[in-house]
Amino acid sequence: MTGLCNGRVVVVTGAGRGLGRAHALAFAAEGARVVVNDLGVGLDGTGGGTGPAQRVVDEITAAGGEAVAHGGDIATTDGAASLVATALDAFGRLDTLVNNAGFLRDRMLVNLDEDDWDAVMRVHLKGHFLPLKHAAAHWRAEAKAGREPVARVINTSSGAGLLGSVGQGNYAAAKAGIVGLTLVASAEMGRYGVQVNAIAPAARTRMTEQTFAETMAAPGGAAFDAMAPENVSPLVVWLGSAASAGVTGRVFEAEAGRITVMEGWRPGPSADKGGRWTPTEAGETTRKLLAVSEPPYPVYGTH
Ligand SMILES: NC(=O)c1ccc[n+]([C@@H]2O[C@H](COP(=O)([O-])OP(=O)(O)OC[C@H]3O[C@@H](n4cnc5c(N)ncnc54)[C@H](O)[C@@H]3O)[C@@H](O)[C@H]2O)c1
User: Is pTM beyond 0.90 here?
Assistant: First the structure.
């Protein structure tokens, strides 16, 4: 099999279902050998089993590709270290890490239990940090040994993390944290040949099946299931390939047939007194600055 990712070894976390599954199949279709990670948990992160990961491995091998399953919890040191070790043991290298695993525990803030906060922060934020850390250690060692990696990391944020989302305080905070982690990782790892970007996807999976139920017809009459997770994967595959050279520290929204470069926080109107404001002065000045500033985008769930 030849393609954009021929010869590359790609790890996808949470690849037993939904977006991760679509990414794993799309990478394999472009010639990558894939480590399919999934803990097989329920929508709220409870339960577990190796079934979903193995089913995706079976799909890839049935299509003529190469893949192995990894059933570890990516939010633990053991799970993240063994994920990287699985790629090296099975295929002898690691080129691309797609951090994608996660789950939801949606509640309004006043009803959000500490456990639901911790579980969601853990799976998304720590579940990105630990695989990234272990992959980065491998790539740094490769670079120091004179084998400059052409390594890629694609992290998974969310519109909730970029704009906020009512009823998702834990999830939005974790997904915003993933953007910060992406920026730092991109800046720290560039010298070792590692590019790090993030996507904010939207697709119909078990996580969102009530939000995205419809099927759209594409121009020309061909059926185009706009919210299919497979529509997000082409950007992820390109970002995960050598072809994306020079693209790092960016956040992209990907949904249906649309790719959007998200433009992040940057200084807007500003005033400098050259000394300390009184609170009243600070307030008056701030109101003037707000009057000439761009209003923020609405938070999801408020419009
Ligand atoms: N579907 C969307 O519209 C949408 C929008 C924004 C962001 N996202 C993000 O995309 C990613 C994929 O979501 P999805 O919609 O495909 O959901 P999904 O529930 O279909 O898939 C997530 C997978 O992650 C696995 N998983 C959960 N915890 C894990 C752990 N600790 N270790 C290993 N695997 C684990 C689950 O078993 C599941 O198979 C998530 O990070 C989600 O927050 C999705």
Answer: yes
